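Researcher: First entry.
Model:
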Amino acid sequence: MAVATAVHPVVLYARVSQARDERSKSVDDQLTELRRWAEREGWPIVGTYRDDSVSASRYAGGKARPGWEQAMNAVTSGKVRALLVWELSRATRDRAVSVALETACAARGVRIGYGGRLHDPATADGAFSVGLDALLAAKESAMTSERTRRAVESRATGGRPHGPLAYGYRRVIDPGSGRAIGREVDPEQGPIVEEIVRRLLDREPANAIADDLNARDVPTRTGKQWRAANLAKLAQRPTYAGLRVHHGEVLDGVAATWPPIITVDDHHRLRALFGSPERDKWRNSTAVKHLGTGVFRCGRDGCDGRMRVVAQAGKPSRYDCRDCHRVSRLQGPVDDLVQRVIIERLSRPDALDVLTGPDESDRRREAASETVRLRAEETDIQRLLRGGQLTLGDLAAWRAGWTPRINAAELAARPVTLPDSVTGIAGPDADKRWAEATIATRRAVLDTLMVVTIRPVIHGGQPFDPHGVRITWKGQGG
């Protein structure tokens, strides 16, 4: 063969998109066939490159193919005369990449070998043959992507699960076929999810919950340690409320085929809690050891900053505004006053009735109206996006401002439900239960029931004035 004697050094490349099954040829099998071909023709192999479980489609999201990059470097080096692949789709299913390959090979005098034949893209026939095969590979990739998309959308609208198994669930296996036919609550992990959500709704810091689970040797799905950020993110998944998500959005009117672990109301309360602009590290860190750090507010006009505790050697600790640094008050008397007021209120026989109050207050009706308005705004934005009048960048910029507003509105619109941290202390023995409570629980109760504002001192050096601390009860309790 004239062509064979003209070709000397060659490089081999092989790839598969996923683990081998009965319909595919493994990377090792591909390379074995290519080596036999080169040996029969007497072509020296100067490089062998591979990519395992990597797609070559334009739908792969730009995932790197280090083996392919090395093969292309060999092609453009001018030191090889042919690139051998099992079939052209192993090199690429992306038409833009195939054009770049054809151009590089034509410029360097490199032939492309597949299916037992060499093709020279520098000739009309070779360019036509390679181009046609590349188009067919791209078409097959597009059809596969389309079938996958339709299957995913069908599962979504049918409420069927998709993607990795969420912590808290296990697969239901058909004993006849051995295939997964559904999902059910895992008897060990499900209660852990319920516990995490309940404790977060009780305003317990995520760090404290994670530390407790680790101390109890409760394993994560991967067997690693619980971490606050991952724990809080896990708890907010719509999956646990039986909500089906598609493209990051909850599908309205779609009933999930798996059982919920928590209620939809608890899911929304938790999302609103974590989306509240008032929530910050000072309010939830396990490093906080004082009652009012990050919770007590500065009463200086125009500030409304959060208070921190400042301790100096030989002097009593003080609350100081961490924003303006213009308001300061001794910590001990402030904490004593606030705790006396809380205990007195929670000791009343009708404490819980007074604190919850009627659900249909003017504030909640206004918040409900705001929620409806913001949801309508979301519908309009989605319509403009589908019509091409907005870009995804416009949508992202709009959501950055819209998300905290809708979270705050939905939280304010919901009926008041007191967390266990409050109901567990309320009653005739409130003083005893308060004394036994952890600092995290005390802060959760305080943050749930009241707003404490420390006013500026007009004249320094005066005895502690209780009127310099303003306590405003939240909800109907005020």
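Researcher: Second entry.
Model:
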Amino acid sequence: MSYLTVFAVAYKPKKKMVENLIQRYSKNFPIIIINNSLHKLHKNFYKKNNLTIIDNKENNGNGAGINIGLKLIQTKLALYIDLDAYISLKNLSKLIRYAELIKNFGVLISNSSNINCKNKIFKTWNKEGSVMLFNLDILKDKLFFDEKYFLYFEENDFFFNCLKKKINVFFLPNVISSHARGTSVIEDGKINELRAWHYSWSSFYFYKKNFNYYFAIKKNLPSFLKNIIMIFYFLLTINFKESKLRFFRISGFVSSLLCLRSWKRNN
């Protein structure tokens, strides 16, 4: 029985991205893909060895998809990877060695931003979670992702709450990965609008939940005011595509400010 399972959450993924994930890791580890699309993936994927696909009946967001994976996986270690992220087998082996050395951790985070920290490992909540190694012996049934987030900040919230509960989250600067952000999804004209709205909503919700309401206003107000200015600029320059994105950023902020749920979806 394997000691590690690789898993990912997919939403309208590019076929090549799924193929890459399978080719890289299926010879060494079982793979689970949680499909948040409302239609099935390519039929060939369902015939692959060492691959399990979970087709959700509704899309409740990336964090909800991760929760499904964490509840299903039976191995001690679970490697979550965004479909548009990449970690070589060499760096994955290094990550596993750190898991054996540190032992008392909940999550290990790879360095996807080429941050030079002089190889010093440190605890953090404020890092990207495109590649995360979960220790299910520590986390199992103790802590899950907040499903009020649909997109963005769900991993920061998870890391923050791990640390509050004395569950260690470590950033490993010399375990290198990469992340081609936003390239895994088949573009349908509305994806960027969805991303713009949820980034603003989730940013405000994160700081409101984990700090306080007024701190969230202080943290997000500069961006809100900038978007107000920029929407008029883009309207005057007849750049309706950019003005529309600014509108969705403003709408997401206002919805979160008014304590409305994360309601925007791409049907």
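Model: Note on the second entry: The chain has eight helices and ten strands.
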